[in-house]
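Below is a filled-in request sheet from our internal design queue. Each sheet records the structural input a requester submitted and the sequence that came back. We keep these sheets so that new team members can see what a complete request looks like end to end.

REQUESTER: design group, bay 2
PRIORITY: normal
MODE: inverse folding
CHAIN LENGTH: 592
BACKBONE (tokenized):
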């Protein structure tokens, strides 16, 4: 039997920048038609590893082998240069013109448009075309979904599924990775681990590795490394808390459905709300056009305190215009917008203009000096707050100009979220953030007491954080849906459908005998929350038990039994939580 040789290999690769080791004894292989996701914290060296594979960086030591004649295409995070060159001239090289024009057409790009006139999303699509034209044997993708709208992301997913070459991808978009990846590389503190499964299996695999690492250190009577304890155990606990918060979000969505009646209308309520002071923003029959092109047409909605609104639509559809209208930055051509007189606004837009790159994170948060930062009006030690956002002490004293773009965005989030506010506006917050930071942001948003307006194309993040979706559906029409992205996707009418068919949102058809859960399912749904709470408390007790540094020395066999029981209970908790969410979503669908 013949074995297919790899397209590319690294053996015992080492690379350092100054005193910092980026890659330590890294070995990997990329096979034909591979679909590999590369995960790791921001600043861990993922982009550097891609450049090593592309031949753009030399190793300090180790072996790099590429199949003779191997053609590698790389999409880094850079945008196209802002010049007077046309898109076609910028990309035209060795490829036949018709091949290039077909790729540009698929990406919705005008070949004769000048680079200097491109939006961020268009520029990103140009660089995608540059990477894929010519069908390289290995395609390296660094955050390919950044700055792209959902239509383009979904097109990319289908294109990459059919792509004949191998793909190695870095992305914070969990849905994107889950749909495409079949192998997983995890870059962690300079070391690379390989899982022969796709991203959906990553979390459980990584937590098992972490637990083994902690157990080994404890067995050797060594002090657990501060980074391991803070980063990994903290993230594991945070994921568990986030599951509880997700349950709460689903319950909140059901409460909104019950309060607001039938879904699919463009307003929350058609009559005056009895909630009075809870009103945040009310829009009535608002329209806005630029150069006779309708951007917003006859839009009405009522946003109440505590609502979490995801705003979704193609690039250029009018999402920023809608935000500016609701915040009073621009006036409508028709209609009226009323806002609460007590709004305290905090805005995250990723421009980073409020960051002084000569300062370090500590100085950025403590603008008046000292070591205290006010977080929602409550004083906290700056180092403790920075650790909440995954900064260690060394990073806290590093000038911002030496931090990665993702680390700066993480700091900007910390600065914005510390500010007292009752209306939080996040414009594409998930770009350039690693998944652990997204988990952290989800946790902060779940605890946020105010109202959220969130512009994002990240489907998983919308599912985890929103109670409603405002979706742009063409020709200035904006539709409201209760729930997250998945709820919206189940209800929306395909855009290709004739306009006359878009007046009514289809709902699940009830059939006799299937309009409610079975008796056993209903009983299971009732009992599971208490079972989950009991199991969570049991796990906490076991974790406290093994945290005792003297436990292993006193009772090695008891320590091993406790670790084994803890792993079993964690797995059982995961199963029960997944089953609870499955039944709850099924009940919601039947009720709708």
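RETURNED SEQUENCE:
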């Amino acid at each position: 039997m013949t074995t297919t040789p790899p397209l590319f290999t690294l053996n015992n690769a080492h690379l350092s920048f100054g005193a910092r080791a980026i890659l330590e004894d890294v070995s990997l292989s990329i096979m034909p038609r591979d679909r590999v996701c590369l995960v790791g914290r921001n600043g861990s060296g993922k982009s550097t590893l891609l450049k090593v594979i592309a031949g753009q960086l030399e190793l300090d030591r180790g072996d790099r082998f590429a199949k003779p004649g191997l053609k590698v295409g790389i999409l880094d995070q850079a945008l196209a240069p802002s010049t007077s060159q046309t898109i076609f001239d910028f990309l035209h090289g060795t490829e036949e013109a018709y091949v290039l024009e077909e790729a540009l057409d698929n990406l919705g790009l005008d070949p004769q448009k000048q680079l200097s006139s491109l939006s961020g999303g268009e520029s990103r699509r140009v660089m995608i075309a540059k990477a894929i034209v010519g069908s390289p044997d290995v395609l390296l993708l660094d955050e390919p979904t950044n700055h792209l709208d959902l239509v383009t992301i979904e097109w990319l997913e289908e294109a990459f599924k059919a792509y004949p070459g191998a793909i190695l991808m870095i992305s914070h978009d969990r849905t994107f990775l889950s749909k495409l990846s079949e192998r997983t590389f995890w870059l962690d503190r300079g070391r690379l681990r390989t899982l022969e499964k796709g991203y959906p299996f990553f979390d459980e695999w990584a937590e098992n590795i972490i637990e083994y690492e902690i157990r080994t250190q404890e067995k050797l009577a060594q002090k657990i490394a501060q980074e391991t304890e803070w980063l990994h155990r903290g993230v594991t606990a945070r994921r568990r808390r986030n599951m509880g918060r997700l349950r709460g979000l689903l319950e909140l969505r059901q409460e909104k459905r019950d309060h607001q009646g039938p879904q699919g209308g463009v307003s929350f309520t058609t009559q005056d709300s009895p909630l009075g002071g809870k009103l945040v923003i009310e829009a009535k029959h608002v329209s806005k056009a630029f150069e006779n092109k309708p951007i917003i047409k006859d839009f009405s909605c009522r946003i109440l305190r505590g609502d979490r609104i995801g705003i979704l639509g193609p690039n250029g559809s009018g999402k920023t215009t809608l935000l500016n209208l609701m915040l009073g930055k621009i006036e409508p051509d028709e209609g009226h917008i009323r806002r609460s007189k007590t709004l305290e606004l905090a805005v995250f837009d990723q421009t980073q203009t409020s960051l002084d790159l000569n300062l370090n994170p500590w100085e950025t948060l403590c603008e008046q000096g000292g070591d205290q930062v006010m977080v929602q009006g409550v004083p906290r030690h700056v180092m403790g707050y920075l650790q909440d956002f995954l900064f260690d002490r060394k990073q806290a004293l590093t000038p911002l100009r030496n931090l990665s773009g993702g680390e700066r965005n993480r700091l900007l989030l910390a600065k914005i979220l510390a500010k007292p506010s009752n209306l939080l506006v996040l414009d594409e917050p998930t770009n350039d953030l690693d998944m652990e930071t997204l988990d952290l942001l989800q946790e902060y948003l779940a605890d946020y007491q105010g109202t959220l307006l969130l512009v994002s194309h990240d489907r998983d993040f919308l599912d985890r954080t929103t109670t409603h979706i405002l979706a742009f559906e063409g020709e200035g029409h904006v539709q409201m849906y209760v729930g997250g992205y998945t709820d919206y996707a189940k209800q929306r009418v395909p855009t290709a459908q004739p306009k006359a068919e878009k007046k009514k949102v289809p709902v699940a058809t009830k059939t006799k005998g299937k309009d409610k859960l079975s008796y056993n399912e209903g009983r299971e749904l009732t009992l599971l929350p208490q079972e989950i709470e009991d199991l969570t408390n049991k796990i906490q007790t076991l974790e406290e038990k093994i945290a005792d540094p003297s436990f292993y020395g006193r009772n090695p066999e008891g320590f091993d039994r406790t670790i084994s029981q803890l792993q079993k209970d964690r797995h059982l908790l995961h199963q029960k939580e997944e089953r609870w969410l499955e039944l709850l979503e099924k009940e919601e669908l039947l009720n709708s």
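SHEET NOTES:
- Residues 556-591 form the longest helix (36 residues).
- The first strand starts at residue 8 and ends at 17.
FILED BY: M.R.
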